[in-house]
Each structure stands twice: as C-alpha cells, then as structure tokens.
Amino acid sequence: MAYDRAFGDWVRDHLKDLGAIEIKPMFGAAGVKFGGAMFAILDDGEIWLKADEALAAGLEAEGARQFNYATKAGEVMVMAYWSLPETAVDDADEAVAWARKSVEVALRPKPKRR
After folding, report:
1. 32 to each of 11, 73, 93, how far by Cα in Å?
2. Domains recognised in the chain with CATH numbers
3. Which residue, among 59, 31, 43, has the nearest Cα to 2 in the 3D structure?
4. Which residues contact 20 (CB under 8 A, 6 or more apart)?
C-alpha cells in the first residue's frame, strides 16, 4: 500500500465536479471523504470506490477489480471497494458519476448491531 500526494492532487482535480473532498493519509494509503463519509481509498496510483452489491455489480461489469490485500499471516483480505473503471480514469465526467454512486453508498446509515 502506498499513497502519493501528487496522485491525491490529480484525484482532487479529476473529481472536482463532485465537490469538496478530503484526503487523509492512513496506513500507507489514503481515505477520501465527501460529506464526512469515506467513499474511496487511494492506493498505489488507483482510486478504489466503496460499493454495495448493486454498485459492485456495475463496476465489475465495466472491468473493475475488487480491493484485496495480504495480511502478515498470508491471508487475503477482501474489502467492499472496487477500482475505478479504466474508461473513467481518462474521463472526469464518468469518474464523477461513479464517485457520486459511491458517495451514496458511503452516506447510507449503517444497520444497527445488536
């Protein structure tokens, strides 16, 4: 996992039509927030969008990959984040459309635990 500030600057510019985003370095990567909710991770030069089942299906259909990493114990952990489709890397309007869907997922109230 690695976060490059220059990449963060590019992401701010690429998603500027979304509105003000906040990028905070964390665990070697960075979290991206909108409206106080984390909707993306920046890692190794990629944007990973938070997704529910429906959004994940749409992202996967566009060739996106699910975020995963290996633990020190050798386990592969899978998270509910998907790569930004390649076509959206070169198209800011498309990237913002995907980001808006991800923000909607991130802003949903979490189910209460018992």
Report:
1. 10, 28, 18
2. 5-107 (3.30.1460.30)
3. 43
4. 34
Amino acid, single-letter form, for residue 93: D
Copy the structure tokens of residue 61: 């259909």
CB 7 within 8 A of CB 75: no
Q: How far apart are CA 86 and CA 80, in angstroms?
A: 18
In angstroms, the CA 112 to CA 114 distance is 7
pLDDT tens for each residue of 25-52: 988 899 999 999 999 999 989 999 999 9
Please report, for residues 23, 27, 59, 69, the alpha-carbon distance to residue 55 in angstroms, rounded to integers and kept in the order given: 22, 25, 6, 21
Q: Measured at the alpha carbon of residue 36, what is the angle toward residues 114 and 76, in degrees to the nearest 5?
A: 65
Residues lower than pLDDT 70 in the chain: 1-2
